[in-house]
Amino acid sequence: MKYLLPTVAGCASVALVGTLAVTAPSATAATTSPDVSKEALNVSKEGLNVPGARDSSDSTATAANQSAMSNLPNIFKSQTALASAKVPDIVTASASASAATVNNVSAGLTSGADEAVPSEGSAPTESEQAPAEGAESESPKSEDVKSDDAADEGAKDSSDETKSEGEDDISGSVRQKTEDGVNIALISDVLDVPANNPSLIGFTFSQAKSNIRIQVRTKQGSEWGTWNTLDEEQQEEAQNKGSEPLTVSNASAVQMRILGDSAPSDAELVLVDPKRDAGDAQAVAENDPVELDDQVSGDSTGTDTAPEESTEDSTDAEAASAENVDAAAGATVTNQNYVPGSSTVETVAKKVSKPKIGSRSSWGAKAYRGSPDYASGIKQAVVHHTSGSNSYSAADVPGIIRGIQAYHQQGRGWNDIGYNVVADKYGRLWQARGGDISKAVIGAHVAGHNTGTFGISVLGTYNSAAPPKKTRDAVASAIAWKFSINGISKATKSNLVGHRDLGQTECPGDAFYAKLGEMRSTVNSILKTGEQPSDSKDDDKKDDDKKDDDKKTEKKTTIEKYAEKHKLGKALGKEYEVKGISGAKAQKFEKGTVYWSKKTGAYHLSGAIASAYKGDAVTDLGLPTSAEKGGLKGGGAAQRFQKGSFYWSKDTGAHYTSGTIMKYWGDKGTVKGHLGYPKDDVVYKKGRGEQLFQGARLVWAEGYGTTEFSAKGSIAGGVSDDNSPDGTTPPGDDSTDDKSPADSGEGSADDKDSTDDKSEDDSAKDDSKEDDSSKEDDSKEDEKSEDDSKEDDSKEDEKSEDDSKKDDTPSKAEKIAAQRASIIKDAKANLGVRYVWGGTSPKTGWDCSGYTQYVYGKNGIKLPRTTSQQRYAGKEISLKDAKAGDLIWIPGHIGIISETKGQMYDAGSSRTNTTKRSYSWMLDRGAKVIRVVG
Asked: At what angle do helices 757-791 and 848-858 cross, to 10 degrees?
């Protein structure tokens, strides 16, 4: 294991933070400087051998006829490939690995254009069985990412790369590839991380010739977490390219890998140990948390029913509508990016005093490189979360901020960190980016929207749970103060927004985003009175105002308010629980049905999508998470749900897609790509998924990824891939080569050589011999019986014959043992047969599953054709119970356990052909033992 950091630190969350100039408190300035370690990243053989190093990538879209990298989401593609994009998307990934917390720090990542740009026409009408007219526009996402037109659809598979003859065959037929066939361009050793304070990991490079994906995983104890993808983080002031920093928490080690056809140049892994400073505790002690009176703070309570709204600006998830995103695009101080009239500067705002904000010197900030830039004022506040660990202590916070600054300044060459202010979960505020906090410092928190905005971020990840109420109040108090000194008298949905409103990202998390309405109410309460908590006056007046507001809204729930706002007409029934989804509520109205939960907020369905949303679709997809979007190709429409999306067109009707197949389809351009619209609903069962699209039928198999078949007909024996180059099966040296005309990498389901003539002749001869032997035995037995009858009486003869039959009939255990011995004999007899991808015959060669199918077939056991099917051909047993003749399987490879402990017979590759060798490498990758004998 490799050490790049001093072993004095642990893990907590990380946040990009920005700058506010405040009067320094009396806390002693931190003097500790973070340790920043950089290491050139290459292919570590030790790293490749670590269990799980080749685990599947988070996008298993690896088509039979496409480059592995052409299936990557656009956020990982080079900017050259995305240069034609019209509307940049800002994508942020948030991830966590089981017990060891791994989280991304969100900043702006510019990606390709949204594939579904609204057209001038309306969505299809209800009379056409299409989604309803006038629906709000919001782009559906394939879970983490968006796709666009820049997919590289003609690239060659990276499996054809030249392999070194001197290298060991580490994974049988796979060399530097993930289980789903994606090339591992770079992988690190296992690296130790600090144990007692926050730490960060990131990746930098200069140029990438191919599309890349940056992934990190963490280890806690003896268990590795899953691989998690980092976004590429782009800012104008960066001196190189690279990822966002990732926070590692409660972990003992980390490992990084880069997926892509080729390694980027000047690749470096960056680790930051911010250390713990003696002044950290004092800085925390002297920076009091913000505490708002109940009269000012919004209500934080919630119930399982749709809650009542507190103000007209209170929000559910509809604040993520496309019009808000469009309105905010390209923000500058000229107010050109806002909904007309919604964020105009008014001069009637009361002066609000500044809340307590910890100084930069208190957390040990390094100097701003150069001089901060200023806008003439701010006209919008943007709320973020850092996508870091939530398990940090109060004393960790100064170090967390130091670590982020160190990564950005020393790792990326930035001038400073990006947010103007950062808040922690304890309700404290901290100045981040350098400059005068009372002025409009231009930060680096949203690409293309830094001028004229105030960026404030909360340390932690808030997808499933919102920050504590005191933290939300602290954020609201800082925004209210900035609004007041910039002449903004009211917080609205256009001037107090979440990061996701300005780009394609989950930031600030679903749960936090759902609280923005409450925070607008809090900001407006502060602006109304001009008072912060320390200035509390006229409490009776605030009590009266709150009572008046409660009276105005006490009768309407969120669903009712939503229906009224979207003009859905009269209610056609009472609110009811959605069967199969815990905590979900719904209510039917004249023009649609509104669905609501705490996590998703309220959205409505209408037209064809509403009609199709029933049965399995409800449990498979969950609740809607976006408004319906019209204007897609051919006048189509779409709507996003928790686990997938519905798509409608006049030719195909409404059908939903989800999971791996949806990711693959997204990588191919969704409805704008060659696959077009879905023609039926996706189905997943026993390690296999299938869905028919206009352009092809997609089939996914566990461990192999996704393969395209002709859209005509069905998947059956003899089917070949119409999309393969020149109509031929591509050559392959790997049993996990995803270029399969079957479903998973071992060649055609009906290979011409799958029935071996010689084996049939041998079988016939064996049958003939058995018949002759039977006749001879019968004759001898008759003669013996006649002799015996002369010496013994008839009863004794019968007893003798019965005993003879009992002695000659083998037991079940003996039959099984004989069958195992015969399997091993046939496996040995075919050692040396050459490896041929797609082959099934000893005369012409075979791949791994063709070999096992042949040997077992010779012994009366009919195995299916592919490894994914053979995986389920028998019963899974533990390794300690394995016997000679059992199968040993991993995704993409299968062998026959031999009579020698720890070894197997298999057809591994064109270098090893059919051989006997160790299966220890398979155990490192989670091998399964399958018993089909007996």
From this structure: 20
